[in-house]
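Summary of Year 1 activities. Much of the first year was spent building the evaluation harness for sequence design. The harness presents a backbone, in tokenized form, and records the residue chosen at every position. We chose the following record to illustrate the format because it has been used consistently in internal testing since the harness was completed.
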């Protein structure tokens, strides 16, 4: 393998990555594993506040009511699912490829008093273990970037969503072309499989049969995220050293400032809202 050859992580490898990095994310990001949304230069929100603000944007787009059920594709450690359930009264089934995340998310739902309607299980989005038309809504919140085939996952989402149901996705996008070296560092650090552009995304979603209702470019609002984590790594370096040892700490300290500049200069972020039409030929 040449130095910059691209890796193609399997869902199993992504699951093992999140099992390993669970304590890292818990220490530096908390119970959300997605970008923050800052309203502007004067916004002094913490990372958690900014991350919850993005979850609230998705909750407003998905429009669920009590008794309805959302499928959360790539649920992380469950904070977005729990928040959605608390705010709307809806039920959630969350899936992840990481056993550690299932355990953390289940514990969070129990602590938050919503375990009766929010549950998590290990499953691969490439082959969803659910019946056709069994969910009122689906979201894929910053998870498609790890998956082997976006178009295939979109077809799976389409299949399990009831006609008329909403589908919301968010994703990191590549707005300026990365060099081979930058791509290898970024993909290797997060076990990414591929990145799309904001411009191409709507076509990808309509190709499945969805009607796209809204495309929101929030690239500018998310730019502080990786710098925030990079700074937090400096503050929490003793905790990370205890968890992972001096060698991995040294690697993380070298890599994170570079990841932060890659986000700032090359990456974007899309929120896309769509729905499955009530009747269609597809
Ligand atoms: N949506 C969560 C977590 C985002 S991190 C949040 O906002 O906090 C990415 C998530 O995608 C992880 O939970 C990971 O396990 C999941 N994921 C990656 N590939 C997957 C696949 N093939 N099937 C199901 N989940 C997957």
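For this record, the design step produced the sequence shown next.
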């Amino acid at each position: 393998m040449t130095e910059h050859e691209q890796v193609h992580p399997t869902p199993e490898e992504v699951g093992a990555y999140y099992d390993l990095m669970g304590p890292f994310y818990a220490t530096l990001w908390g119970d959300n594993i997605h970008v923050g949304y800052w309203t502007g230069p004067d916004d002094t929100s913490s990372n958690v506040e900014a991350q919850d603000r993005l979850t609230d944007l998705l909750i407003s787009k998905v429009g669920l009511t009590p008794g309805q059920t959302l499928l959360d594709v790539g649920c992380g450690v469950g904070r977005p699912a729990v928040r959605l359930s608390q705010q709307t009264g809806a039920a959630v089934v969350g899936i992840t490829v990481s056993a550690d995340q299932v355990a953390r998310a289940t514990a969070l739902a129990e602590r938050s008093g919503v375990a009766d309607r929010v549950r998590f299980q290990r499953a691969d989005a490439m082959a969803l273990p659910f019946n056709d038309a069994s969910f009122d809504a689906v979201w894929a919140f910053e998870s498609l970037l790890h998956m082997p085939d976006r178009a295939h996952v979109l077809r799976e989402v389409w299949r399990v969503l009831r006609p008329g149901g909403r589908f919301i996705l968010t994703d990191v996008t590549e707005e300026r072309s990365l060099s081979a070296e930058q791509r290898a560092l970024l993909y290797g650090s997060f076990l990414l499989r591929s990145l799309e552009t904001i411009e191409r995304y709507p076509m990808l979603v309509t190709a499945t049969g969805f009607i796209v209702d809204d495309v929101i470019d929030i690239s500018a609002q998310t730019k502080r995220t990786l710098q925030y984590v990079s700074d937090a790594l400096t503050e929490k370096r003793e905790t990370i050293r205890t968890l992972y040892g001096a060698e991995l700490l040294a690697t993380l300290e070298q890599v994170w400032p570079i990841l932060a500049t890659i986000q700032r200069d090359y990456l974007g972020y899309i929120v896309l809202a769509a729905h499955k039409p009530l009747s269609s030929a597809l």
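The chain has a mean pLDDT of 95. Quantitative recovery figures across the full test set are reported in Table 2.
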